[in-house]
Amino acid sequence: MKVLVTGAAGFIGMHTTKKLLDEGYNVIGLDNMNNYYDPKLKEYRLNLLTPYDNFNFIKMDLCDREGVAKLFENEKFDRVIHLAAQAGVRYSIEKPFEYTDSNITGFLTILEGCRNSEIDHLVYASSSSVYGMNKKVPFSEDDRVDEPVSLYAATKKANELMAKTYSHLYQLKTTGLRFFTVYGPAGRPDMAPWLFTEAMLKEKTINVFNNGNMKRDFTYIDDIVEGIFRIQNKHGSSATNSNIYNIGNSKSILLMDFISALEKHTGKKANKNFMSMQPGDVEQTYSDSTKLYDEVGYQPRVNVDEGVKSFVNWFLEYTKTTADGK
């Protein structure tokens, strides 16, 4: 089984690729290694994958239509797991074209590659952000998602519509996975777990938006990866060409409780600067993952205390080994 994983040097991409490699899959990892955040972290992740004999890495931008088409033609993939995207809700307000390039044009090149190469199954990353200001909780795949509050969310909803269209026109089997606030070792430095941990260890102030009145369905990376792995296998034999699933912990945790867990495992008290809601943000995310459980028997196992402990331990080790340029 040969699988293409896009965004292989990213947070979710690296962990997913490692799972596939450990299971014996042949994986081609693709990433453009951009500088949205420090590329050294992407290189660190990539270094965890390169020792595998069944892994090959290709540096390429998904907007390179000819390059991507040639890659599909040459490699004859069985499946594609598309995790590459320009991430970050707040950054989409500052750099909107980065999102249309990566998340719309880039996704189209993947869809074209899949339909021209008769790919067995395309699994792609969507996001809980598509639910916008949805007041009904927990969020269900049956809820309306036509009122995004950020461009990032709009691009992810567009991806779902594009995939559905290709499934209808070309009988391409596609599965979109709506991830809920993923965290864990090797996570992104622009997200709260990293930002808060780094500031707390340096005894600096953390910015807490909406005066702390935020709730998130924090989902540990291992649980996300297990869901991806199971669904890429399961849907290949499904009679339905296009599906959407939530992947979340199905628990909506107060941001202040998450900060308390960080305080416990860092041994540092957080100095909090309470601020108003950021544009594009939402007050709550909360996943109903019943549909995924019914399909593949997947249910997250890692609670926030365990997950935060694992992240903090990794963060301490990573920052120690990268201090002073080492």
Could you provide a short overview of the structure?
By secondary structure, this protein is α/β, with parallel strands linked by helices.
Characteristics of this structure?
globular, two-stranded parallel ribbon, 326 residues, alpha/beta, 13 strands, single chain, Rossmann fold, seven-stranded parallel sheet
What would your notes on this structure say?
Keywords: NAD. This is Protein CapI. Residues 4-310 form the NAD(P)-binding domain. InterPro entries: NAD(P)-bd_dom (IPR016040), NAD(P)-bd_dom_sf (IPR036291). Pfam families: GDP_Man_Dehyd. Strand 5, helix 6 (151-170) and strand 6 (174-179) form a beta-alpha-beta unit. Helix 3 runs parallel beside helix 5. Helix content is 43%, strand content 17%. It has a domain at 2-180 and 221-249 and 286-301: 3-Layer(aba) Sandwich (Rossmann fold). It has helices at 11-22, 39-47, 65-75, 91-94, 96-117, 151-170, 192-201, 221-234, 255-266, 290-296, 304-322; strands spanning 2-6, 26-31, 55-59, 79-82, 121-127, 174-179, 182-183, 205-208, 215-216, 219-220, 242-247, 253-254, 271-274. It starts with a strand and ends with a helix. The chain is α/β, with parallel strands linked by helices and 326 residues long. The strands form four sheets. The protein has a seven-stranded parallel β-sheet with strand order 3-2-1-4-5-6-11, sandwiched between helices.
What is the ordering of alpha helices and beta strands? EHEHEHEHHEHEEHEEEHEEHEHH
The CATH topology of the domain at 2-180 and 221-249 and 286-301: Rossmann fold
- CATH homologous superfamily of the domain at 2-180 and 221-249 and 286-301, by name? NAD(P)-binding Rossmann-like Domain
Query: Helix content range of the residues, please?
Result: 40-55%
Q: What structural category arises from helix and sheet content?
A: alpha/beta
- Let me know the number of strands: 13
CATH class of the domain at 2-180 and 221-249 and 286-301: Alpha Beta
User: Outline, from the CA principal axes?
Assistant: globular
Mean pLDDT: 94
Query: Which value, in Å, is the CA radius of gyration?
Result: 19 Å
Number of helices: 11
The N- and C-terminal alpha carbons lie at a distance of 37 Å
> Which percent range describes the beta-strand content?
15-25%
From the coordinates shown, what is the CATH architecture of the domain at 2-180 and 221-249 and 286-301?
3-Layer(aba) Sandwich
Give the neighbour order of strands across the main sheet: 3-2-1-4-5-6-11
- Low-confidence parts lasting 5 or more residues at pLDDT below 50? none
Q: What kind of sheet is the major sheet?
A: 7 strands, parallel
Protein name: Protein CapI
Keywords: NAD
Pfam families: GDP_Man_Dehyd
InterPro entries: NAD(P)-bd_dom, NAD(P)-bd_dom_sf
